[in-house]
Amino acid sequence: MVDDTDLFSSLDPQGADWDRLRATGHRLLDMMFDNLQNLREQPVWQPLPDDMRAGFRNAPVPDQGMDADAFGEVFRETVLPYSVGNRHPGFMGWVHGGGTPVGMLAELLAAGLNANLGGRDHAPVEVERMVIRWAATLMGFPETASGLFVTGSSIANFIAVIVASRAAENGLSLRENGMRDRSLVGYAARSAHGCVSRAFDLAGLGSDALRLVPLDDSFRMDTTALKEMIAADRQAGLEPFLVVGTAGTVDVGAIDPLEAIAGIAAEEGVWFHVDGAFGAMAALSPRFKEALSGLEKADSLAFDFHKWAQVPYDAGCVIVRDSTKHAAAFAQTLSYLSREDRGLAAGAPWFCDLGPDLSRGFRALKVWATLSVYGTQRLGQMVDNCCAVARHLADRVAAEPTLDLMAPVTLDIVCFRLRDPALTDEQLDHLNGEVVKDVQESGLAAPSTTRINGRLVIRAAIVNHRTMVADVDRMVDAVLCFAAKRRSGLPA
Ligand SMILES: *Cc1c(COP(=O)(O)O)cnc(C)c1O
């Protein structure tokens, strides 16, 4: 017989240690508030010093514990100053949301609750269902649509590809039999995010089964080409099952002609999926409703709350119009997961029936908090503001004699390039790429690069609610200054 007094006494503090840990918690919370309040005084990004990098790489597994306060100090010194920089108003690289202090608090609450949202009957799953219903409503889907939170749009797109392939004619047999001799093919514009092709790869369809449709002059899917490609594939005995339209392409922020694609998908009897990773959030602004028209006709939609909606990472979302088809693609009946009419194991269907994860955290809480505290109107104004800042940047670029605007600005992404008649295209690629690194290392701003029609361009995505006109002007000034230094052979 053992007695509890002989045993280890749980990982919780004992007695007065609760007060010490509570004080540590308050200090850490204040540290993060101070840090967020003073973002502008910090560099956008700075590289991790070599000794700290070596510290991480050589640190042994800790066998003895340390004080939580001391651990907070390690975080403050080695992590806090050397993060990605996406919270900073000068961050314009890739497509990263800025996060909010409210989202931070919600993460704390979610971690304190430590809920598992794979299933069962409790308030957190109702919160996720509510937020999914809100998301469906915002995007013009019926309230009966199903959906779930996942890490990001990469997995949301993957889930949609799985659902679409299972929903294809005779699809159910795919789950037991695999592809056998079926040859399902799908379509997306050349500008589609790389995760769509990877979704085809992961789904076992093969990345070649995703046909890349050419673009029109405005960097949108050429729907005449789409129709021809579908016809040619049918002729060759293949089975077209899916068309993916993008709302907000990752390189230039274009919106594929969603109405036209919806029409073609309906005529052809194929699934219509939209990758709206960041662009779907433009639906928060009445100004962009028109531009997104057709999105509400999709069979499924992938998008992120962690990009333009400013929810802290990670918070991706997939919505499927037909809840039956969604569940049919993932549900399993395993006895240890059996559903009851009452008690904790009631409340089917569970979220584990709608995606590959069984254990799942409470991502929905930070989305609920963000939507509740800011409201969709204010978030819509934020979206408008980002686009206005992007238009200002485009005007500034157009007015600079040494810069070229490289693509029309539909939403919040501006692509531009340093010009110099004395340099070849290749030399200009090199110059633009080096100047972007100079600017990033200066800590003044963080644009990134992409390629348009084969040429390397500087790309600024205004996805952070903190980025204002003065911030993009500072970025352009930095680009011009480093370019001038490089041209005159001075060290950057
Ligand atoms: C960011 C992005 C993705 C990938 O989303 P993650 O949340 O990073 O997984 C997919 N498509 C588009 C258009 C994107 O901008």
From TrEMBL:
<dbReference type="InterPro" id="IPR010977">
    <property type="entry name" value="Aromatic_deC"/>
</dbReference>
<keyword id="KW-0663">Pyridoxal phosphate</keyword>
<keyword id="KW-0210">Decarboxylase</keyword>
<dbReference type="InterPro" id="IPR015421">
    <property type="entry name" value="PyrdxlP-dep_Trfase_major"/>
</dbReference>
<dbReference type="InterPro" id="IPR015424">
    <property type="entry name" value="PyrdxlP-dep_Trfase"/>
</dbReference>
<protein>
    <submittedName>
        <fullName>Cytochrome D ubiquinol oxidase subunit I</fullName>
    </submittedName>
</protein>
<dbReference type="GO" id="GO:0019752">
    <property type="term" value="P:carboxylic acid metabolic process"/>
</dbReference>
<comment type="similarity">
    <text>Belongs to the group II decarboxylase family.</text>
</comment>
<dbReference type="Pfam" id="PF00282">
    <property type="entry name" value="Pyridoxal_deC"/>
</dbReference>
<dbReference type="GO" id="GO:0030170">
    <property type="term" value="F:pyridoxal phosphate binding"/>
</dbReference>
<dbReference type="GO" id="GO:0006520">
    <property type="term" value="P:amino acid metabolic process"/>
</dbReference>
<feature type="modified residue" description="N6-(pyridoxal phosphate)lysine">
    <location>
        <position position="307"/>
    </location>
</feature>
<dbReference type="GO" id="GO:0016831">
    <property type="term" value="F:carboxy-lyase activity"/>
</dbReference>
<dbReference type="InterPro" id="IPR002129">
    <property type="entry name" value="PyrdxlP-dep_de-COase"/>
</dbReference>
<keyword id="KW-0456">Lyase</keyword>
